[in-house]
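QA checklist item 7 of 12: single-chain prediction sanity check.
[x] sequence parsed
[x] length recorded as 277
[x] structure emitted
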Amino acid sequence: MSIVLGVDVGGSTTKIVGLKDGELFGTLQVSAKDQVTSLYGAIGRFLREKDAALGGVSAIALTGVGASFIEEQIYGVKTCKVDEFLAIGRGALLLSGLDEALVVSMGTGTSLVRIDKYGVTRVGGSGIGGGTIIGLASQMIGKSDIDAILVLAENGSLANVDLLVRDIIGGDIPLLAPNLTAANFGKIKSTASESDLALGIVNMVFEVIGMLAVFALKNDTIRDVVMTGTLATFPQLTPILSSFSDITELNFRVPPEAVFATALGAAQVMRSTQPEG
């Protein structure tokens, strides 16, 4: 039995996947206020929860912004760093079953990576992401816990926050559906609740990220967009992506285990470099 661990050390969370003889056998995500401490603790917890021995781990693949803080071998196990953008791309293709795609990795911020048979290219990125949601929510509704923000957002109404196309256009306009957002937070009512504001924040972040993907593929032959990262689990993402698919020729996908795509990609890259047996 050969176990390879892939660890994505992000700005606010650490994500781990385990490959046992090439097959995914476990995942774990923990908060990471201190990346180094979190990394060691998360690996120990992962092995304990999966009833796996440290001696069975043949390699550890590190990626993500926090990986730069690690210079030593983890627990004496062979440890290598994998380029984050390569890990993002490889993990997304593995999870989606695609041969090429634009991958949108949504964490504290957002990265866009194009991957096909010729390789991986970083298209760009944005400071818009989970950090934006937490920062704005802490100031606007006094909430900084992401779970609490999401609970509030589930009961919100964008009609009390956003200005829609139908609010400013009297008739129909080709290619512009009346329910599209004309201005995020462009129509905040005095009666808007915390739930309305929470939904407005989440909706704005996802709409901005979705449009970045659309612009990135404007002159490209790739039609598939794979959404990965921590924000991929948010329930508000699916209807927003559906609306983008309706008004573009792009296919937006959120694969299973999308949160762990980068960690999985790192583990797969590491495994592919190991000798057989």
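[x] summary fact logged: The first helix runs from residue 35 to 49.
[ ] second reviewer sign-off
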